[in-house]
């Protein structure tokens, strides 16, 4: 009896990548040569460092692996908390307390065959400068201005100029910076010596919210005032000489308890443990959809830099998830 079954051929995992790398185009870079060799070189030689394994970093690590990058490393100093689980999709309840970098690397490698991800559970300052020089591109998934400034300074320190005062191409360390804040996000490409660096545009960030100490001590009006009173004033009064550690659950619980007492004294509602964490650590509510969109933009820009399959962002992409409205600068 003849076999009448029809075998359905599954599409190649690199199908969409091939559309970018195997065909010529009008927006490609001057050295772009389409072909399977380019895809193979991307997998073999391009080495990308992802800085941060939080909401944006998890998405970015996954997207880069699916985009064709095979040699990835990720660095993050934090451990997984229960509050991370609603948006940092690589983590599970049983992972709470484990290093984010290690769990994120493990989960991506379990789901995507052929990718090699090396995790680093440490502060970015703990690595020597040459560690960062080993990467083709640095992708940032950070929520800290200070951390961005540090990586920016490291990348710019590699830059050298020729006799005509032009940047030497082999010393340029490209950075792709992503950031999200609720329903808003940005992606940008920083090419030291060519585009403005992070320090050149740091004034674009809004100033940090600060409360007058007299308001905290005398006339608190909001839950945040009560929390900052416990954090900035009461802690030093009770724990003289002992620095407050925002990553220590016992320290955070003490601040929360004191903030509750303060709020009850003045009849102020709204003090919760999660809100206390947000105020003390300056945590901005994260939206998973925003992280996914900004991560996709950063992964695409990283691919453009590595292959020249298209022109990269000259500077900035800003996204606002209200009516799917976004603005692109610099194309």
UniProtKB/TrEMBL annotation:
The keyword ATP-binding applies. The chain crosses the membrane at residues 313-330. Residues 37-318 form the THIF-type NAD/FAD binding fold domain. GO terms for molecular function: ATP binding; NEDD8 activating enzyme activity. GO terms for biological process: protein neddylation. Pathway: Protein modification; protein neddylation. GO terms for cellular component: cytoplasm; nucleus. SUPFAM superfamilies: Activating enzymes of the ubiquitin-like proteins (SSF69572). InterPro entries: ThiF/MoeB/HesA, ThiF_NAD_FAD-bd, Ub_act_enz_dom_a_sf, Uba3_N, Ubiquitin-activating_enz, UBQ-activ_enz_E1_Cys_AS. The keyword Transit peptide does not apply. It catalyses: ATP + [NEDD8 protein] + [E1 NEDD8-activating enzyme]-L-cysteine = AMP + diphosphate + [E1 NEDD8-activating enzyme]-S-[NEDD8 protein]-yl-L-cysteine. Its EC number is 6.2.1.64. The active site is at 214 (glycyl thioester intermediate). Catalytic subunit of the dimeric E1 enzyme, which activates NEDD8. Belongs to the ubiquitin-activating E1 family. UBA3 subfamily. This is NEDD8-activating enzyme E1 catalytic subunit. It comes from Pisum sativum.
């Amino acid at each position: 009896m003849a076999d009448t079954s029809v075998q359905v051929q599954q599409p190649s995992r690199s199908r969409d990548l091939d559309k970018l790398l195997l065909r010529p185009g009008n927006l490609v870079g001057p050295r772009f040569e389409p072909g399977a060799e380019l895809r193979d070189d991307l997998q073999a030689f391009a080495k990308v460092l992802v800085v941060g394994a939080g909401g944006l970093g998890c998405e970015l690590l996954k997207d880069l692996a699916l985009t064709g990058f095979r040699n990835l490393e990720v660095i993050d100093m934090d451990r997984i908390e229960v509050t991370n689980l609603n948006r940092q999709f690589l983590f599970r309840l049983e992972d709470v307390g484990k290093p984010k970098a290690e769990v994120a690397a493990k989960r991506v490698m379990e789901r995507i065959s052929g990718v090699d991800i090396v995790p680093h559970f440490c502060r970015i300052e703990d690595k020597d400068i040459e560690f960062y020089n080993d990467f083709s591109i640095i992708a940032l998934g950070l929520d800290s201005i200070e951390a961005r400034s540090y990586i920016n300074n490291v990348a710019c320190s590699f830059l050298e100029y020729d006799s005509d005062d032009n940047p030497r191409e082999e010393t340029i360390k490209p950075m792709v910076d992503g950031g999200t804040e609720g329903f808003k996000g940005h992606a940008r490409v920083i090419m030291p010596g060519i585009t403005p660096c992070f320090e050149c545009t740091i004034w674009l960030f809004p100033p940090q919210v600060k409360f007058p100490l007299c308001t905290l001590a005398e006339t608190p009006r909001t839950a945040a005032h009560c929390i900052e009173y416990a954090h900035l004033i009461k802690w030093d009064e009770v724990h003289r000489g002992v620095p407050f550690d925002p990553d220590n659950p016992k320290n955070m619980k003490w601040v929360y308890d004191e903030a509750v007492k303060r709020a009850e004294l003045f009849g102020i509602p709204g003090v919760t443990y999660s809100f206390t964490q947000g105020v003390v650590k300056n945590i901005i509510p994260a939206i998973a959809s925003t992280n996914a969109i900004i991560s996709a933009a950063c992964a695409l820009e990283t691919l453009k830099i590595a292959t020249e399959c298209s022109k990269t962002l000259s500077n900035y992409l800003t996204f606002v998830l209200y009516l799917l409205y976004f603005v692109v600068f610099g194309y």
